[in-house]
Write the structure tokens for this entry.
Amino acid sequence: MTKANDLASLLDANGDVVSSALDNVPAAPTPSLSSLGIPNHDDITVDGSGNVGLGGSPSRKLHIIDSGDTYVAIQGGTSSKAGIFFGDSDNHTLSRIRHDNTDNSLQFSTNEIERMRISGGNLLVGTTDTVPSNNGAGGDAGLAFTPDGAIRAARSGNNPLDINRMDSDGDIAAFRKDGSTVGSIGSDGGKLVVNSQGSNLVFAVGGTTKLNLDGTQFYPQTDGGLDLGHPSVKWKDLRLSGGVYLGGTGSANYLDDYEEGTWTPTTPSGSWTVNSANYVKVGKLVHCNFSLTVTSAVGAVDFYGLPFSSNAFSSGVLGYQNSDSGEVFSIFVQTGTVWNFRVGPNQKGAANSTFLRGSFHYTTDA
């Protein structure tokens, strides 16, 4: 049968291949090294899929097989580079692992851009700078891990450190000195917690300690060295459950109360209208003032209504009265809540329709 007849026997009347006619067509022989012009060697195998095995039967395009430690050596010149490229049919050099023999750095690239390198024991990500944390605006950003244990980072326009604790409150960052924990920063119910494991939490400015916070006190490092507030930037309100030591630390310097309010002067004889009556209490000292209009003649009697009980005799002055022309009424405060008007040693009353305005002070144990 001629070659033309052989071909014709494989086709039907429509010119299509008769599938049964292919049953007797011999398969293509598996290529051998000798058929490729390569001398045969027991350690090299090329299978029918074109996979090459070194040391055994391959399952990949290049398969290196050994029972012990196995290495691949890629050697370049002393002033050149050696590496492996990765890619696709459009670009076979998209990614690479490359060794630079000029500085002995190992470089890793993706999408034809270097992303990381190991150089001189430093692991550098996104940078070739071993100290990116020193860079100013517009400088090189990236992350450096150095062989002495430092981690240095720089990022443009955003935070260079972003850490997250999930599922529970607690420490987010812990800090240690010589293996012992000295403090931590964490979370508690959505709040930031700064915790010192020592006796104090210290605040420093310019490397110098300025403030200390311990379990019961918040105080400056040096006595009298700091002000609270600023001449042009003041605190709003100060709320204390205890008192204030002013000008010293002795009991005489302790101010434990300041209070403002109103009080109601009362008389058992006659009557008056209280136009106003106010007091200020600073520590143990009480200062009172009043304005009264007499609506029914008031006798020379004791009056009442002091805002706090007096612990000693004291006095004041009726700055204005039109009851007795030419007389100066003093105000005498006795112990308890008793007070009265006096001219000399004698108690005084006030005529109807007169005006009385006065002030006095006294001390109290309240």
Summary: DSSP finds one helix and 26 strands in the chain. Residues 3-8 form the longest helix (6 residues).
